[in-house]
Amino acid sequence: MELYQTVIIAIKLFAIMDPFSIIPYLLAIFEEYSQSSDTKVSWNYLINKVELAVVILLVFFSLIGKAFLDFLGLTPASLEIGGGIILVYLGIDTMGGFQQLKFLGRSIVEAAVTPIATPLIVGPGTMAALVTLSVSFPVYYLLIGSLIAAGITYVVLRFGPLLVKILGRTGTVAAGRFTAIIIAAFGVQLILQGISQINLV
């Protein structure tokens, strides 16, 4: 197994999940919930819940990606173009922040799965990327890359309050928006790869 390939997969997935963009909003909601609710939930407990859901989702889509593609009868080119469009849109949307968090319910623990773990972290872009990558990489590459990306995401979220103190809320948002550029660039790359495959047919 080539180490650099799993690292590339992990970096792409981490950039698409973009936990930096989540931190300011997640912190604001956590603080609001802690002040208004009688049920106390620690930051570590919340992040552990989020991470568990993220790992399950990443493993699931890593395993079923290629089979899902074959079941639907989709060509790799069409998936790359479709997934690329989603990623470009996601990158643009990330630049403007996440509005989905306003739909949070009363329980922040329930919200750890939806909408925090999905669709804010493992959303359509991540799912499309995993299915698309399954065309070019064996499943164990995707699994290892996914677990690495999930691990880095956990560290970022776990130390989210510290990062905000160091970088400030503006700096944290800026870091998230920088990764949005990577997301959009990856999307454009997928679209170009898909078009090139169509031209070769």
Question: How would you explain this protein's 3D organization?
Answer:
The chain has 201 residues and is mainly alpha-helical. It has one domain. It contains eight helices and no strands. The protein has helices spanning 3-17, 19-36, 43-72, 76-95, 108-121, 124-136, 139-158, 160-200. Helix 2 runs antiparallel to helix 5 (108-121) and helix 4 packs antiparallel against helix 8. The two termini are 30 Å apart.
How confident overall, as mean pLDDT? 80
Beta content: under 5%
Number of domains: 1
N-to-C order of helices and strands: HHHHHHHH
CA distance, first residue to last residue: 30 Å
Features:
201 residues, mainly alpha, 8 helices
